[in-house]
Amino acid sequence: MPITKFNRKHLTLKLFSIPCKSHCCPYSSALSKPSANTEYDIQNSQFFIEPPVSRKIIEPPQGSGLDFEKDPPIPDKIFRDAPKSGSYRRGDSTFYSLIENYAKSGDFTSLEMVFSRMKRERRAFIEKNFIVVFRAYGKAHLTEKAIELFSRMVDEFQCKRTVKSFNSVLNVIIQEGLYSRAVEFYNYVIVSTQNISPNVLTFNLVVKALCKLGLVDRAIHVFREMPVWKSVPDVYTYCTLMDGLCKVDRIDEAVALLDEMQIEGCFPSPVTFNILINGLCKKGDLARAAKLVDNMFLKGCVPNEVTYNTLIHGLCLKGKLDKATDLLDRMLLNKCIPNDVTYGTIINGLVKQGRAVDGARVLLAMEERGHSANEYVYSALVSGLFKAGKPEQAVRMWKEMMVKGCKPNTVVYSALIDGLCRVGKSNEAEEVLSEMIKMGCKPNAYTYSSLMRGFFETGNSDKALIVWKEMADEDCMENDVCQSVLISGLCKDGKLKEALMVWKHMFGKGHTPDVVAYSSMIHGLCIAGSVEQGLKLFNEMLCKESDSKPDVVTYNILLSALCKQDSLSRAIDLLNNMLEQGCDPDSVTCNTFLTTLKEKLNPPQNGSEFLDELVLRLYKRHRVTAASKIIEVMLHKFLHPKASTWEKIIREFCKPKKIQTAIDKCWNELF
């Protein structure tokens, strides 16, 4: 009679199918009386069963609760009780099945019990038992548990560790983002003990960890050590190192690696080129990026959507939107289908250039090709159309978005509220805010700031204060911008007392006023005639961090206030301070002094000598651009600079290198 071979999982299914009347175990009678024709190979963990002449296999009844796909192949009760009945002996593969199941379910307590039982029975531990558990620890984010088990493998379980188990643990550590811990683990196991020989996967993981930490030189050192360990770098090794070099702005070294890998017989993939193209685009070197695309074709690598998206993003960053749209057409010609990222990048670039109407046209082309815009694209377009003075189109865009089933988020609602406030429709914006809250979309500080700014601009400061209070009631965290808007609006409205109250509240909440808040407060004090208090705040700003340093607006506020008080000498001292602090005067600064010199001095002066001297002082500090702007102001006022001043500025602008740069820029724009 032929012998049929079953694996154990298959046998378990058959055993479960046999009914039984035992009280201790529902299936023990089927196990306690093995057939005379049943044999069990302990080494191979397989049953050899001579099939009976006629025996109907009964399937488990419905509602029995048994699920052979999900339940362990050997239930724990059978596992414990079967040796007592003498039905079979537990083999090593039985333990492995339990380990695998408990690992998949994340039952680490039961796993430890299985390991303890295996030790008591002196079972042989093999590496694959532990690799399964390492992966389970990784899924459960128990990194230290994985490291601890790795250290127990040799002494406690007498299992030899190889690079496979080491890589499993190293990958678990890196997946958790613990890059420093990964490098420590590598140094301790590989470098210090040298009991395990690393392979290419080991080096790929270590190089990745070092690059993530910004330790690119150490990553290069590890990369150069690979031949010592008889390990050959693959395309992933090169890509990881190139990406690390690009992120620390060492593009030339990354490009040099491209040549090196080809010499070593490692052929680049599209990912390799994409990393380098992305690095060059971020640096603004679009010419070299384009050459790399040509090199891709020569190497047989076809540019994919990532390549084109990277180039389009680079062109948008440089403001070359027309070239970006041309590249979109080329992308279609090369049968590479643009995705949402492609269109979104171009639309966002157009909006930033003030070409929101063109962005809306790109959106139509996007939808014609079967792509749907997301809420961020609509947010950019709605905001851009309002800024471009197209409120009707912006509202229409919003309605179209709702009709097309794109659910607005906080960003889109905030864009609409800000836009309505810009065109003086603060009450409509308030209604949108109410609708936003009803829809379960929580406003942020930017939303409330936009609405407050809208009410202040329409002269309704009381409503702006109500919005501020509502913001507190909604537990929305105030930020510096929100406080600055409130202080600025109150000061412009002449409500200095309320502004001071908000100022104190701001410090009480631990917020640091920015330059806008300081400037607004100084302006309010100066309007109220408290110029000295304004100067005190100004001196406080000078002692603060860079975010709160006075800018040209702050200086102009104080210069105007001092000049109105006929304190010309103090105004000139403040101007000197302005130049020393590296802040360049602008046309407002010039006009303030020109008006004062004409109206407050006797005899009046036209200010040409004053501005001429200011130009020379900026020139001596090598601030030629600022000096040229002062000359522009002089020319608009029909005030002629001295011939010697003209000569110095023109010579500075007409240096050969600068002329050549201007010519090169012109040629690049033409071609």
Uncertain runs are 1-71, 84-89
Shape label: globular
Q: Mean pLDDT score, rounded? A: 81
Separation, N- and C-terminal Cα atoms: 86 Å
Gyration radius, in Å: 37 Å
Q: What is the number of strand segments?
A: 3
Largest sheet: 3 strands, antiparallel
Structural class: mainly alpha
Separate helix tally? 36
Beta content comes to under 5%
Range of helix content:
55-70%
Strand order of the largest sheet: 1-3-2
PPR repeats: 199-233, 234-268, 269-303, 304-338, 339-373, 374-408, 409-443, 444-478, 479-513, 514-548, 551-585
Protein name: Pentatricopeptide repeat-containing protein
Pfam families: PPR, PPR_2
InterPro entries: PPR_rpt, TPR-like_helical_dom_sf
Report on this structure:
PPR repeats lie at residues 199-233, 234-268, 269-303, 304-338, 339-373, 374-408, 409-443, 444-478, 479-513, 514-548, 551-585. Pfam families: PPR, PPR_2. The N and C termini lie far apart (86 Å). A hairpin with a 4-residue loop joins strand 2 (38-41) and strand 3. This protein has helices at 8-16, 28-32, 76-85, 92-105, 108-120, 127-139, 143-155, 163-175, 179-193, 200-212, 216-225, 235-247, 251-263, 270-283, 286-298, 305-317, 321-333, 340-352, 356-368, 375-387, 391-403, 410-422, 426-438, 445-457, 461-473, 480-492, 496-508, 515-527, 531-542, 552-564, 568-580, 587-599, 608-620, 624-636, 643-653, 656-670; strands spanning 4-6, 38-41, 46-49. It contains 36 helices and 3 strands. The chain has a 3-stranded antiparallel β-sheet. The longest helix has 15 residues, at 179-193. The chain is an all-alpha fold. Helix 16 (305-317) packs parallel to helix 18, helix 17 (321-333) runs antiparallel to helix 18 and helix 24 (445-457) runs parallel beside helix 26 (480-492).
